[in-house]
Amino acid sequence: MLELFLIGIGTGNPDHITRQAEKAIRGADLILLPHKEDNKAELARVRLSLLRDLSIDDRRISHFDMPVRRQQGTDYDRQVDEWHDAIAQRWQASLQTHLPAHSGRVALLVWGDPALYDSTLRIASRLGLAHDQVQVVPGITSMQVLCSAHGIALNEIGAPFQVTTGRQLREHGWPSGVDTLVVMLDGQCSYEQVTEADIDIYWGAYLGMPQQLLMHGRLGDIAPDITRRRARAREQNGWIMDIYLLRRTSR
């Protein structure tokens, strides 16, 4: 029987690999390793470095190129659906090549945690596997690493917080009923559109990596500095992964 393990690996720091994740990686017969466009080659290198730190034989690794998502038009949901179909087809091709009997343990290394703003579980559902054939290994999220790096608590005492995306923040503004927002997947610096007064921002990029960047302050004061630093880092590295927390203050 085929078993698929979706393994959270945190932000790429080897110290973020849990013992459960290590056990699942070592026990895999095949590890699928995605490659994105050339300017994001470092992401594949980080995954490969983690595998080599665990002495995983290269013959157990199947490399595949990630398809590019169509971004023309306003049918965002359809674009994502097509993209997930294409990724699932790449997975299937690797399985047919390396596990033609459709039996064995297959692993995918997922940034952060597979359950939080990640589509790996949705893509896996396209493979037609039974529920007990898919195992999820939780990982440390960038949200946790961000709070730890800044030395802050995620929530105020007894208060709720909300995790959202840059697109949601741009299109719908600050949601009612919460004073703390964690914003992920924001490639357009949506914090610049926040007009509420007395907002602090805790921003981080490349969390857990050697090039980690952190900035914190009153949003109205440092938003332009974050945008400039973000653009400079993206130009230098060819890619960027960042996240930020916004919090209303009483000051």
UniProtKB/TrEMBL annotation:
Pathway: Cofactor biosynthesis; adenosylcobalamin biosynthesis. It comes from the Bacteria. One of its GO terms (molecular function) is precorrin-6A synthase (deacetylating) activity. One of its GO terms (biological process) is methylation. Residues 4-222 form the Tetrapyrrole methylase domain. Keywords: Cobalamin biosynthesis, Methyltransferase, S-adenosyl-L-methionine, Transferase. InterPro entries: 4pyrrol_Mease, 4pyrrol_Methylase_sf, 4pyrrole_Mease_sub1, 4pyrrole_Mease_sub2, CobF. Its EC number is 2.1.1.152. Gene3D superfamilies: Cobalt-precorrin-4 Transmethylase, Domain 1, Methyltransferase, Cobalt-precorrin-4 Transmethylase, Domain 2. SUPFAM superfamilies: Tetrapyrrole methylase (SSF53790). PANTHER family: COBALT-PRECORRIN-2 C(20)-METHYLTRANSFERASE, PRECORRIN-6A SYNTHASE [DEACETYLATING]. This is Precorrin-6A synthase (Deacetylating). It comes from Comamonas guangdongensis. The gene is cobF.
